[in-house]
Design goal:
- The protein has one domain: Porin, CATH 2.40.160.60.
- It has 2 helices and 19 strands.
- By secondary structure, the protein is mostly beta strands.
């Protein structure tokens, strides 16, 4: 099928806009990108996507696509689709000398998205999601010093919190029945709170992230591409009661200078990300195989590639099951003597009841990781389609 282009929006103008946005976001990432990934797992919103291993960049017609490819909201089944998702996770802390595990956490609101076909070939979408949300409580720790290695009698209870929430807007254009383009913009806020003994600090920072993507269909195969700009939020965490800093005086080492620090800077970032993927035609009319490769442009020498793969099996007209796996590659060398990559196994399915659908996914990171305890996630989404 040869693509047919509408005369309403000239193709050269669209391509120029895409090129300029890609160039600006790439240069911005090159000039100010962050070096190392966070040691903590992010949340994994998108129940329908992660049931099949997170390989979703070539999918269309789902609100969950907005988290992977802005062009994915094209080809809605109805006039509008609304999705509400809750999530649960169980994480492991990577500081083994504390011998502490994350407690399980439930997020009643992890993702909510709405996609609307505003014109015959135009689809607009908006979403709210929580990409990171955890509280690390070390419990009671006994304070020790060089003179009192068995403890001073003082007990502290350190607490570290990291919260993120984001708002996004997507716009997709169907250039033909086989070619879809999309643009996305996301605002994300990062909130931190650290508390150690009588010292507590909290603050927030925010930044924008832009995305562009495309989905192409060729002989019932689908291919997807998405590019996301860097996210880099920098802010200050204010000390509630002030903190004292001691600076040695080279002229008089016995009398160092002491002053009050009102705030400390912090940053939260994610690198420029490119993602490519495919989806096969239904095999025997039932089985579809999907796969994604993702590149993250970290500054330091750390693993930059992640891979996602899975398959969906259409059992009936209203029930679909899925399995998959994906890698989570990070540099743990500064935190634990474990592997630089974890392999998650996933499973789930989608049940359609009239205009409603229920999607669920479970992700397990323990089974294939020897001598290193991974993570577990469970997501459940409820959606409705308006005819």
């Amino acid at each position: 099928m040869s693509p047919h282009f509408s005369s309403c929006v000239p193709l050269p103008r669209i391509l120029i806009c895409f090129f300029l946005l890609s160039l600006v976001t790439t240069l911005n990432a090159r000039q100010a990108r962050d070096g190392l990934p966070s040691p903590y797992h992010p949340n994994r919103p998108g129940a329908q996507a992660y049931a099949q291993g997170g390989a979703f960049v070539a999918s269309t017609g789902s609100t969950a696509s907005m988290l992977f490819n802005p062009a994915g909201i094209a080809q809605l089944e109805g006039r509008a689709v609304f999705t509400f998702e809750a999530g649960w996770n169980s994480r492991t802390e990577y500081l083994p000398f504390f011998n502490y595990d994350f407690t399980s956490q439930t997020r009643l609101l992890q993702f909510v998205g709405l996609a609307v076909a505003v014109k015959p070939k135009w689809t607009a979408g908006a979403y709210f999601f929580r990409p990171t949300d955890y509280e690390l409580d070390f419990g009671e720790l006994v304070v020790t010093t060089l003179n009192n290695p068995d403890g001073t009698g003082e007990v502290i209870q350190p607490v570290f919190e990291r919260r993120q929430f984001g708002l996004g807007l997507n716009l997709a254009r169907s250039m033909s029945n086989a070619w879809h383009l999309g643009l996305g913009m996301e605002w994300r806020r990062t909130e931190v709170r650290d508390e150690v003994a009588a010292l507590a600090a909290q603050g927030h920072a925010d930044d924008f992230r832009f995305a562009l993507g495309s989905v192409v269909q060729w002989h019932d195969w689908r291919f997807g591409m998405a590019l996301q700009s860097q996210y880099k939020a920098e802010g200050e965490a204010a000390f509630e009661n002030g903190a004292y800093a001691i600076v040695p005086d080279p002229q008089n080492p016995s009398r160092p200078s002491t002053f009050v620090v009102e705030a400390a800077s912090f940053k939260s970032s994610e690198p420029l990300t490119a993602r490519l993927g495919f989806a096969t035609p239904p095999i025997f009319g039932k089985l579809t195989v999907t796969g994604d490769a993702e590149y993250k442009d970290y500054l330091e020498t750390v693993p930059r590639w992640q891979f996602y793969g899975g398959s969906t099996l259409k059992l009936t007209s209203f029930l679909q099951l899925a399995v998959g796996s994906f890698t989570f590659r990070k540099d743990y060398s500064g935190y634990v003597d474990g592997p630089s990559s974890e392999v998650f196994l996933t499973c789930g399915g989608t049940l359609r009841l009239g205009r409603a659908h229920i999607a669920a996914s479970f992700m397990e990171g323990d089974l294939l990781n020897e001598d290193f305890e991974g993570q577990s996630f469970f997501n459940m989404a409820v959606g409705f389609t308006l005819p």
